[in-house]
Structure formats: structure tokens, C-alpha cells
Design brief:
It is a single chain. By secondary structure, the chain is α/β, with parallel strands linked by helices. The chain has helices at 12-24, 37-45, 56-62, 72-82, 101-106, 154-163, 176-207, 210-214, 218-222, 230-239, 241-263, 267-282, 308-318, 346-359; strands at residues 4-8, 29-33, 51-52, 65-68, 92-95, 116-122, 143-147, 170-173, 296-303, 325-329, 336-343, 364-365. α7 (176-207) packs across α11. The protein starts with a strand and ends with a strand. The structure holds 1,4-dihydronicotinamide adenine dinucleotide and 3-(4-hydroxy-phenyl)pyruvic acid (ENO). 3-(4-hydroxy-phenyl)pyruvic acid is lined by residues 98, 123-127, 187, 225, 228, 291-293. Pathway: Amino-acid biosynthesis; L-tyrosine biosynthesis; (4-hydroxyphenyl)pyruvate from prephenate (NAD(+) route): step 1/1.
């Protein structure tokens, strides 16, 4: 591809898309703008962008592709700004936001300027934010939803996919309505429930300080997404309000039903509640990335002596296996501890399992 790319909002997602574009289109210049000057400077220092633009207008009017990497509320405001500038006639404008109805509605303002807006949502990420967390391969094998709203955009859609080829994501085209409905149930709503579970534990912890210590293992993993950015999720919830209210009604009904079964000690119905959830969940694809990324965790039983972590990471480093996270489960405080090591992919986890089996006699297992 030829031309100039302008990324507005140089955080985790905007930065990762910029890196993926740079990897495939080496001659293209990528300019960036971020309201937080430190983030813009860091993005340049990390090679995410070639140069910083002083204003949105300066970058937007020169660009062939504009990527809005901002939180959804700001994305809507920025689209309003873009509609007042003299954009290039053939420019494609896209975003990375987690909601699509309100964003694509606001993008109608861009039509009169001749720009083509195609909404986008790379469905992978993490609870981290900022340019330092950006990675070129963040979206590999993840779904990347695109929401063109007009038939005649076919050529432009192909062009956008060509720009984004380096993400190695799987592109799917859906309507903004379908997008918000699907992501409502599999991504937005789980964030509400995860926060709700944490609130329950917080209340219980006030009564008994053992609760927080016991929550270190499975509970912490189950509620990982409750550590995501509160600002980002507030804005996502407000954008997808109607769908989320429906899902909440459904949830309340479901809770009332299981409550009735427990009250009646109806063991068959309680069994069926878990069993049908298990059947559906066990059939979900495990290898492809969904909206909430799979964990590739390896559990290692290790003796509790100083230096054990560096011993293990040393073996993995020798075998050139990258880890994304490492922590000790704090539920066992005797002679042995459990080290949980997270990897980027199933391949890395398998390689680590083999590597540790070769070098140590520690118990290694996958949950
Ligand atoms: N975090 C995640 O896992 C995922 C997030 N998304 C979506 O991606 C978007 C960005 O999220 P992240 O990259 O995670 O957030 P982030 O906080 O890492 O990055 C957002 C960046 O936008 C900048 N920004 C905010 N307002 C701005 C403005 N008016 N002008 C210029 N820059 C501005 C911030 O300073 C920040 O650097 C959001 O719309 C979110 O819904 C989509 C997929 C996954
Ligand atoms: O951290 C997680 O597990 C996520 O949920 C990542 C995520 C956040 C927002 C999205 O729109 C898509 C994926």
C-alpha cells in the first residue's frame, strides 16, 4: 500500500494496529496524535509512529487512512471534528471501538466530505493500556469485525483489509446492530458480572479478612476482566445501553430461576442448570481468540526457595520461549508453591511444558 496513515489515540489498540501496519507496509509513513503528549512521545520513541502531528487537523488532512484508536466517547467527538476538515477525497476513516451503532451513526456526518467510514473492532486486547502495552501481534488469529454500511463500499472494504493485513486477524463483516448485540452478550455483559462478583467478595471481605487471601487463585482468574479500565467500560456500557438492559433483564430472570431451584432443594434442576452450561461451554472453540482472550497458562509446582523463579525463566529464555505473565499462587504457604506462567499461544505453552520437563522434575500441569 502507498500513502500516509494517521492514528489518533496511541494506546494499546491504536498502537498495536499501527505496529501491525508498519510490519507489512514498510514504506508507508505513520503519523500519530494523542491528547496525552507523554503517550505520543512514547509512541514515537517505541517506533509505533514515525512522527507526531501537532493537531488532529494537520494529520487528518494529509492522510489516506485515518484510524481512531480512542475510547468510544471521544471517537464520536473526533468524527464530528473530522467532518469539519478538508480531508482527502479518497480517505478511509476507521475506528477500533468496542461499540458500533453510535459510532457509525455519527460517521454519517463524514459522508458529505467524500470520506469513507468503515467501523472496525479488533476483538482482542487486555486490561493493560497505553502505548507501552502495544504489540504488533496482538490481533493474530483474533476476529476483527468490520461494519461497512453501504454496498458500494466493497472496494474500499478490500482496501481497508489490505491496510490491516499485518494484524493477521480474521475479518468478519457484520452490521453495527449485529455487532453491538453479539459483543453485548460475550464481552460487555461479562464485564458487568465480573465487577459484580468482585463487589460481592469486597463486601464479604469486610466481615472476614480471610476472603481476600482465599480469592487469590481461581476467583482472581475468573474476575480478571474486572481490572480493565473503568473509564473505558463506563463509556462502552453507555453506548450499548439498550442491549445491556435487555441482557440484565434476562440475567435477573435466570438468577430468579436458579434461586427458586435452590430454595426448593430441587437437585435435578440445579444439576441441569450446570450441566447445560457445561455442555455449551465445552463446545466453544478453544484455539481461536474470542473477545475475551483465552489464557495459555501453565502451572508449575515448585519448591519454595530463593531463585526458583529465575531458574525457571532462565530455562524458558534459553529455549527462546516468551512469557506474558508470571505469578505465584498464594493459597499454599507450606513447602511448595504453584507458579502460574502465561504464554501468548498454545504452541508456546506446549514448548514450555516440554522445556521444563527436560530441565526439571517439577510437576507441570494445565488446568
Ligand atoms: N483494551 C482492549 O482490550 C480493547 C479496546 N478496544 C477499544 O479500543 C479503543 C482504545 O482502547 P485502548 O487502546 O485499550 O485504550 P488506551 O487507553 O490504551 O488508549 C487510548 C488512547 O487514546 C487517547 N485519547 C483519549 N482521548 C483522545 C482524544 N480526544 N484525542 C486523541 N487521543 C485521545 C488516550 O490518551 C490514550 O492514549 C476503545 O474504543 C476501546 O473500546 C477494542 C478492543 C480491545
Ligand atoms: O481483557 C480482556 O479479556 C478483554 O475483554 C479484552 C477486550 C476488551 C474490549 C474489547 O472490545 C474486546 C476485547
Amino acid at each position: 500500500m502507498r500513502g500516509t496513515v494517521f492514528v489518533i489515540g496511541l494506546g494499546l489498540i491504536g498502537g498495536s494496529v499501527a505496529l501491525a501496519i508498519k510490519n507489512t507496509h514498510r514504506d508507508v509513513r505513520i503519523y500519530g496524535y494523542d491528547i496525552n503528549d507523554n503517550s505520543a512521545q512514547l509512541a514515537k520513541a517505541l517506533g509505533i509512529i514515525d512522527d507526531i502531528c501537532d493537531s488532529v487537523r494537520a494529520g487528518a488532512e494529509e492522510a489516506d487512512l485515518i484510524i481512531l484508536g480512542t475510547p468510544v466517547k471521544q471517537t464520536v467527538q473526533l468524527i464530528g471534528d473530522l467532518s469539519r476538515y478538508s480531508l482527502k477525497k479518497n480517505v478511509i476513516v476507521t475506528d477500533v471501538g468496542s461499540t458500533k451503532i453510535k459510532v457509525t451513526e455519527s460517521a454519517k456526518q463524514l459522508e458529505k466530505s467524500g470520506a469513507t467510514f468503515i467501523g472496525g473492532h479488533p476483538m482482542a486486547g487486555s486490561h493493560k493500556s497505553g502505548p507501552a502495552a502495544a504489540k504488533a501481534h496482538l490481533f493474530e488469529n483474533a476476529f476483527y469485525l468490520l461494519t461497512p454500511t453501504q454496498q458500494e463500499e466493497e472496494k474500499k472494504l478490500a482496501e481497508l483489509k489490505a491496510w490491516l493485513r499485518g494484524t493477521k486477524a480474521k475479518f468478519l463483516t457484520v452490521s453495527p446492530e449485529t455487532h453491538d448485540k453479539m459483543t453485548g452478550v460475550i464481552s460487555h455483559f461479562p464485564h458487568i458480572i465480573a465487577a459484580g462478583l468482585v463487589h460481592s467478595a469486597k463486601r464479604a471481605a469486610k466481615q472476614n479478612d480471610l476472603v481476600a487471601r482465599l480469592a487469590a487463585g481461581g476467583f482472581r482468574d475468573t474476575t480478571r476482566i474486572a481490572s480493565s479500565s473503568p473509564e473505558m467500560w463506563r463509556d462502552i456500557l453507555l453506548h450499548n445501553k439498550d442491549e445491556l438492559l435487555l441482557l440484565m433483564d434476562d440475567w435477573i430472570e435466570q438468577m430468579a430461576e436458579i434461586k427458586r431451584h435452590i430454595q426448593a432443594s430441587d437437585s435435578d434442576s440445579i444439576f441441569r442448570y450446570f450441566s447445560s452450561a457445561k455442555t455449551f461451554r465445552d463446545e466453544l472453540p478453544v484455539r481461536s481468540q474470542g473477545a475475551i482472550p483465552a489464557f495459555y497458562d501453565l502451572y508449575v509446582d515448585v519448591p519454595d526457595y530463593p531463585g526458583v523463579i529465575s531458574e525457571i525463566t532462565g530455562y524458558l529464555a534459553q529455549s527462546r520461549i516468551s512469557i506474558t505473565n508470571i505469578r505465584i499462587l498464594e493459597t499454599r504457604e507450606e513447602l511448595y508453591g504453584v507458579l502460574v506462567i502465561s504464554f501468548q499461544s498454545e504452541e508456546d505453552r506446549k514448548a514450555a511444558e516440554d522445556c521444563l520437563a527436560d530441565h526439571t522434575n517439577y510437576g507441570v500441569y494445565i488446568m
